[in-house]
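Worked example

This section walks through a single chain of length 237. The input is the sequence exactly as stored; nothing has been trimmed or padded.
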Amino acid sequence: MGCGTRSELKKLVKQGAIEVNGTRVKDSGLQVDPGADRITVNGDEVRYREFVYLLLNKPQGVVSATEDNRDRTVIDLLGEEYAPFEIFPVGRLDKDTEGLLLLTNDGKLAHNLLSPRKHVPKTYFAHVEGMVGESDRQAFAAGVEFDDGYTTLPAELRILSAGTAGETPMSHIELTIHEGKFHQVKRMFQAVGKRVVYLKRIAMGPLVLDPRLGLGEYRELSEAELSLLKNYGTGSK
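Given that input, the structure is written out below as tokens.
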């Protein structure tokens, strides 16, 4: 739980800094039940947990990776208390894309959510250059073909506004896709002759971006959110 290395903890035991159920520990080899025993180090309670689940509002300019030689990663945004858990992002968002990103160390849950067989929906909000209209909605509903010949799964396009901003027509939309191809949302609009200039993910499966989270901010999932996510990810009802 990040309280120290084995040798450091042995020193803490010798210093009388560790207590189990109110009793000072004298043997560093003492076995405990982390689910039942109350353990404190220098008076601070240590709460054991195997998995951590974080909801992050990813800002632009940050990469969805655990480490990178050039750019700041989503892991760099987390506090030191999460360092012992070896957290990783579930899937990825492009460097210039904002919004919802799930971070965890639960590999099974991540695998279930990312499995192509699950077709977990992901919803994005975007600013698009061009007048997005009914023909685009129908094209996305049928699946659009990329320049490499791949045809996307049907997607749901919701047009929030299709107007002009200055000399350049600008539309605001929400798009729900059921797969995760590289640069998929941008490539879908490119296939219909339009360009995405701003992109933000607002939902993934049953998980919705918390509007109270500013860019770069995160919080742990609630029990209700985690239950929904686990049920959804495993396909149970």
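What to look for: The chain is about 20% helix and 30% strand.
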